[in-house]
Specification:
Layout (H helix, E strand, L loop, with lengths): L12 H5 L10 H10 L8 H15 L12 E8 L6 E3 L7 E10 L7 E8 L13 E8 L3 E2 L1 H4 L8 E3 L4 E7 L9 E9 L2
Antiparallel strand pairs: 1-9, 2-8, 3-6, 3-7, 3-9, 4-5, 4-8
């Protein structure tokens, strides 16, 4: 049954753009692209297009109104190769992520302890995060080759961390006392909320 007082489905711009797409293959990115092209005023049938976006998103599991998007998360590996360049965990504009775990491992044996830091930031100028400009979340000093998520946060008290493009995470490992050519491998896992 079509939406009450709505233009017929055959005239829907949304349905025309997704004509050959099945609910099983419809993605959140496709819906985001269509939504970005839809004008915000509810005139000329746009309000009906908003309803159709919600209906298609819910029916295809490509949209969530209360929790992570189904099957839309990732485990990421990012290598830090010098002390002056932090690893940035930042969703694209319009997305919201829940970062569920953060860990690190050294790809070389440490000659002494290494310092690890986690900050939340609102700016990324490429510099090392500072307590005077960024929200300090956790630090750790360890001589272990691998550092687990539990080591950063007692009982994972801060996990998951919800981040956006405007408030995001920067990871930083201090390379003092490590060999030249050292690589610190950061791991993080997130679920996309929106």
């Amino acid at each position: 049954m079509p939406l009450p007082f709505a233009p017929p489905p055959k005239d829907s711009s949304l349905y025309q753009q997704l004509e050959s797409t099945t609910l099983q293959t419809l993605t959140a990115d496709q819906l985001d692209t269509i939504r970005a092209k839809t004008f915000s005023q509810g005139t000329e049938g746009n309000e009906d297009e908003y309803r159709r976006l919600l209906l298609l998103g819910a029916a295809s599991n490509a949209l969530s109104l209360s929790g992570p998007l189904p099957d839309d998360g990732e485990m990421v590996i990012a290598d830090q190769t010098d002390s002056s360049t932090p690893i940035v965990i930042r969703p694209p504009i319009g997305e919201v992520w829940n970062v569920q775990a953060i860990a690190a491992t050294n790809l070389a044996t440490l000659s002494s302890s290494q310092n690890y830091y986690i900050f939340m930031s609102k700016d990324d100028d490429g510099s090392v995060p500072q307590t005077s400009t960024d929200l300090f979340l956790s630090s750790l000093t360890s001589s272990a080759t691998a550092v687990t998520a539990e080591a950063f946060f007692d009982d994972n008290a801060f996990m998951p961390l919800t981040i956006t493009n405007s408030v995001f995470i920067r990871l930083y490992g201090d390379f003092t006392g490590t060999s030249a050519g050292h690589t610190l491998r950061w791991f993080y896992a997130y679920a996309r909320m929106r």
